[in-house]
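$ fold --in a.seq
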Amino acid sequence: MGSLPPRVSGALSAQYRLEQEIGAGGMATVYLAYDLRHDRRVALKVLRPELAAVIGAERFLAEIKLTANLQHPHILPLFDSGEADGFLFYVMPFIEGESLRDRLVREKQLPVADAVRIGTEVASALDYAHRHGVVHRDIKPENILLHDGRALVADFGIALAASKAGGSRMTETGMSLGTPHYMSPEQAMGEREITARSDIYALGCVLYEMLTAEPPFEGATAQAIVARVLTESPRSLRPQRKSVPPHVEAAVLTALEKLPADRFESAKAFAEALGDPGRTILSRAAPGAGSPARRWLVPAAALAACAVLGLAAGWIAWHPPSSDFPPVVLRYTVSLPDSAALTDALGAPMAYAPDGSVFAYSSRAGLMLRYADRIEVTPVAGGRRDIGPFFSPDGRWLGFEDGAALVRVPLAGGAPVTICDSCAGFSYQWGTDDSIRYHTAPADNGGTRVLMAVSAQGGRPHEFARPDSASGEAFRTPILLPGRRTVVFAIYKGAASTLAAVDLHTGAVARLDQPGFGPQWVDDGFLAFGNADGTLIARPFDAEHVRFTGPPVTIARDVSQPDAYSTRAAVSPSGSIVYPRSGGVVPRRLMLVSRSGQATPITPDAKAYAYPRYAPDGRRVALYITDPVTSSRDVWVLDLAGRVWSRLTTNGISDKPIWTPDGRRVLYSSNDDLWWITADGSARPESLLVSVGSHYAGSITPDGRTVVFQETGSFTSGIRTLAFDSVPASRTIMPAAFNESAPALSPDGHWLAYQSDQTGRMEVYVQSYPAPGARVPVSLQGGAEPVWAHNGRELFYRAGDSLMVASVAVAPAFAVAGRRALFGGTFLGGGSFREYDVAPDDQHFVMIAGGAAQSTLVGVQNVFQRLRYERDRQR
């Protein structure tokens, strides 16, 4: 059950009372609602805002009228549609039952009689709609509901209405009208005119899946599925399931013909063929197991298929695999919603499942899954505030970091399971020996990284390799090779890294004389690894004899590499690749915004600005800027009067600055540790805190003696303090039990504001400082990124797209007197950090206008298969 957005609930409150979220798809979110006028429960679907913006209310409602007139016993009727406060919605009956997808998940294959009956009922609904001029365009098991033993087709004409209303602008949303597994070839090719025979093809796919437990064509990615739809013929049904009658097999294969003219002339004819054992159909579908009926070449028109899917391929010319034709490397883009874009956290924020069917990534909204057969992303259960995803060897589990703990969750559904309570580290890999390996920096080794392992079933971690403390080296990014004896990892000395291997039986370390880091194994016999220049390298490797067997090959040159410790490219053992592109950073505008919401650009240039902070005198702003080419990050100071920039750091791994109260120094994070530097850059940077985990400064006490910061990725994760002139220097004041973050001290230093998701959503709280007291809630219905007014009588925070202000009293106790919205706008949000600041006059704010970074990734297929093909041809 999902939460109810207050704006949606409020907009529809005159007609409907939203009770709970019951589902979400590529185009809409579904709510169980109560129809106040007719005293009944209904299913209310609200179109995604980006889709609604492209379509427009008038055009959508005009197109949807046609579908409202469809009345058939196997069509779920449309009760209502409309627009409310910018939201487009439509209403259907709430069905007490399940979808065909639910039944397929439970039973895999249906009895033949049930499959034929359901297919016949859907065909009857389609025939009726087609005769009234409506083509569904999105027939799939999710849109077929099962109620009282009969099939009901839902969302009839919604895809048509969206397509006709939105036109070519649909591609701007990154959404697809249709699902790759059930797309007809002409729909996948982006044909403008989609006829009723496209629905017949989709129904043939659904029947095929009901009878064999899988659609006619599957693949690791959406574009791989489309390629097979365009080039291959489906396997015959009867060799897979002997109980399928010959006439049913013939009917299904006829429906799945590549050319529309070769399919049934109507859905009625399809239904009749399913029910007539004596009917003879000459299907042209090839009976071979997945072999092409003929050679197809897919020229530039195939690019249209990728555009329909929200993917863009640079070049596709596909040949069926054979000894005569090498596999062709496919490169394409993968769109992510801005609300769940790839996080800019350091380390390895992505992981690919071994079979290439899904990848996981860290977003500002938590861990997300992107399945190859789905356009939308799926949140990871229990991964709301976690990072560092990694898959089990069988692909059934996803592991991730939860503070200092390691957790695993079953992808099929279920509660998260804690593996280890104290396994803080980086770059986790789940080996085929059911052990998880990673690197960390124990205190007894002076912060130098060592290699650790822990059983995936739980237990205490143990060290299995460490460098000589006098060598100045660090061991990072371990992976277990096939054979379970050898671990390959990277050895760092200064900024240089080379690959090495350790024998788990003897402990002997062998240096492989290959620069690189973040090794990943590919079952075709390659190691893939990254370089700090953003290249991804593949090199053939003999896992048994632990040696390279061929020269290195660059397979990608544009990988975003914000640090030199792990590659951001995720590579599956099956050879699928996905990575964020360097230069993919979205330029943003630095804006001065008044309390009324009037926004004025501070500088004319658009860059990847982030984390702005006013100097105490209000004359300067410190922030960090990400380079669009190298993805390096450095701290800068802007003199507001002269619009003059000064660069404070040059190492490319520095960010999140704050000012000391006297304005003489800037404290910032560098390589996840805390440093400071004179604000005019006249002295060298000084280290303040180097330890396990990532550290980000929030506030400095008014006396300038202590910084309050947040720490992640360690056993002391949470909100902590660091005293500049005492020992022990740092201590935890608030463990990160519920993602406590974004700490902000009041001007008098007696109150600490922060954000926490203890209620299931992020809210702003205040408690006393330095002695902790009861937490007092500030925000209602969601809040984040708190900052105090300089007068101490107001507390600002973000709530969705609105900047809120709470009037507060701080004596004799903290209390909230009221809350109100100042202004709204699509300014950059900070997730676990505050991405704006209030000026000393408390009347203006420095904010950042622009989209989220890395909402587009690059995918690559077949590159290792191509390398293996070329290697084998040379032998």
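$ fold --in b.seq
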Amino acid sequence: MRRLSALLAFALLAAGATPPAAAAELPLPLYGHESAAATDDAGALYVNPAGIGLRYPAELLASWAMLENAPDLARWAATVGGLGLAYERAGDLGHTIGLAQAAGNERLRLGWGVDWRVDDRAHRTVTDHRLGLLSHPSPWLALGAVAEHLFEPAVAGARQDRAWTLAAGFRPLALDPARAHGWGTRLTLTADLMMTEGAARGDARVRMGAEFEAAPGLLVRGALEDHGGAYLGLTLRGVNNTLAAQRGSAGRHARSSGGTVSVHAGEERTALASRAQERVAVVRAGGDLGDDAMSGLSLFGGTDVTPARPLHQQLERALDDPLTRGVFLDVRGVGNMAQIEELRPRLERLRRAGKPVVAYLEVGAGRADLYLASACDRIVMAPEAIPSGLGLRAERRYYRGLLERLGVKVERTAYGKYKSAYRNFSVDSTPPADREAIERNLEVSQELFVRALCADRKLGRERVLGFLDGRPWRAEDLAAAGLLDSAGYREDALAMLGRLCGMGEKPRTAALPKRPAARREWLLPSPVAIVYAQGGIETGRSGGDLLLGPTLGSTTLIEQLERAFRRRETRAVVLRVESPGGSALASDLIHHATLRLKRETKKPLVVSMGSLAGSGGYYISSGGDRIYADRFTRTGSIGVLSIKPSLEGFWARQGVRQDDFDRGDWMRAWSVHHDWTPAEQATADSATLRFYRRFVECVATDRGLSWDAVDAVAQGRVWMGEDALERRLVDEIGGLEAALGEARRRAGVPAGARIRPFEFRRPQPGLLERAVGGLVRQAWDDAVRLPEPGAPLYWMDADETP
């Protein structure tokens, strides 16, 4: 509100305005009630340019009005995003071409319009300018302001005085947060005051308007003016079109009647729709799912993460959309069991709402594909698809012998008998502790998977286990066993879905991302902020690393946490963690920032763990007021390690001699060209133990546990979700949605109220940066940011569990 007032004052001063005293002619309504505070479709081109593009992504509008004792008026408008083009013709007197641009967000938008007024009789063109402001401070309040004839152009020899419109909109039903998204948008009251400089105050014009959606797609609109004008309109709103008629008068003698037709890209949720417009949504799921899209290369392979957010959005849209009768889930090689676990409840909600879901597997199925598909009503697999590898397997390779033949040695110090990260460079086989942890996590993963399939498909345990031996199977085999419903092609799966939905053998399909929904709410509050922490943890800014792949920079994440906690609107923060850990220093800096910001702002922090939050990933999570983990989440690994490659043997084999000149007895230990002596190894072990004790102490303090209790479940051990819950490393089993629910509760958001969490995601490089790459040297430095020799790491080996 303060920003809006300041901008209004600036506009007045910049235009050299005197205090307004009178009013100009109010614009003729298109629908019967237009207001500078509530018009957010293509009609905003004639009312307030700041409203362009708010409701629909694109729109075409045509309107005709027959006026008593005046030329008929025809108006056309087209908008794409915040850009609008208008054309108006007043009989044979003249026409106007308008161009307008709006920018900003739903809280505050600024619009600028330029009109070229052509006098067909005098063959003259006059340029005119308008400035508009639109603010939505809350879901129930809208404020608008328009300044017209900014530079007082002369039209037909008469100067057009500046005109000012101040407007307010009110949605009384939206005062209840739980109703603001639905019934709250159905009743809108408006008030507009228009004044012209230099006119008498008594000539000011006031228009009071109202809009009421009496039934889905049926709107009654009207307005009353203080000088005797009155308008009444009836609007029929379809999914992608609008038809309206209105009659009115602008005083005792000037009567008008007209109609408006609109075609728009955004789909209306409440609309007059026929059965022919009902459809099933086609949702495609594939790729290794994660919170953010990430790609890159490291010494250990490539990284390619597909964001899961679009899948969540499409399933949520399918649930809310009255035209969508069911969902066709096209599963094509999906991965990451924890992310899939968070998608399954959305499929279950669709089924409970009477919207069937059919999964189609065209290219076979792995464990993750079946895990997702089993949450659907039916599963169809292509007849020649080969479901294979349905069991579990973990591999560990050891490189000590290879490195010794090259003369390279990897010095390693670690505390925690289960701390296995980088151990495959310094030993020749799997130690008993590592074997124990791997076997346990394989057992848990298998049990979770079998339990889900047995419950979803109503099958016995032994029958399911019989297909998890790794052999390739035919689709017919799985269908005969009940793991699938049938072997068939895409049209067969669609026909099955059509029958379940009561839409026949060939249901109409739609890709929901290509059919955006119209925006009806004035504002969706954002009392909860989500900060995404994904990647290996390093100091500095987020980027990429040849060893760790995409990295999570402590500087970047702390800046995002600062902004999230200090946002005035934020009342609770969710930290979403997908990280195997990394630098001990960077992890400690992030952990300290979370505790400091909680203390300084008095705002709660809820943590949601994705597929993994190990070692440093758990360290940065431990300060949360409540921690959520999925059943497939790998977490814990409370332990410390340091590594240092040594090329001493390699140089000796090459006949290279080295002389050392030191100031400090232990400086030699930091060199990558020397092996550690027994004394240096003991010193490194001692330092690692100190870091371990600090790690355990921080977790004990954050979790309200004793040091011994944490130490007993630490030692570098990785735990799956339910094991971590039993050991009090996390507070509850649940995904990001559950964590958001807890944050809503702590933020005081009423049940049923709709919000839009304010998100801080992984920064993506800009177009220029991607094209040019910056300075070559800087790019190389960023790419080879390997761990410093001997630096302590809170790092979980991603290969140590399935």
